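Pilot study result, target chain (205 residues):
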Amino acid sequence: MTVNAYRSRRLVLKKNEPVRLVEMFAEAAGWKFAGVLNRDPEQEINYEARWNVDTATSVHYIIDDVGIDSSGQLRYMLVLGGERSQRGEILSLMEKGINVWTLDELTEIANLSFGSGLPDEQMRAMLRLGLGAPLAATEAFTELFARGSKDPAPIVRYSTLWGIVHAEWSECLDIVEDLNHDPHPQVSEFAGRVLEAFSSVGDGT
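Predicted structure:
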């Protein structure tokens, strides 16, 4: 599995920013509203709003709440299409105008979550880690994924797998392979599916 060559890093929002606030930011940036994809939990479809920057580039705002975390706290933005330099410029604009987690903050909150004794917070921290991961693997992030994979709470190990899926890093395959033998059936079954996904992308199927 490799990171999509035509997307930016995802910017994970710190707060449950209302759609209207993001709409106002998009209007000020001069982006053209292109519509929404309505939430459909039965089809595992998240709410998504889209703005076109030009004919080749678009900005997306997604509320990820139809998976294992239904709190609505996982909200992020990303840029699709266009040239890498243009995606970087748009990302920089959003980082300045919208309250988002930095890479250092994502790793810090994940570290702190391990001492919290709150599996739900650990789960959300691992999901944020994967959603907001840089396009290229880093030691700080992979070490946290490894730590999450060994957590005593199955929900944390399960969410670590989801974090790795979102990060799209083949460098984490050894972690997934270990979880394929996890004592909890839901974790091991999901790890097997993740391994298949990595393999199929690598084979070009």
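One observation from the pilot: Helices lie at 19-29, 84-97, 103-113, 119-131, 139-149, 154-167, 173-179, 185-202. A full batch analysis is planned for the follow-on phase.
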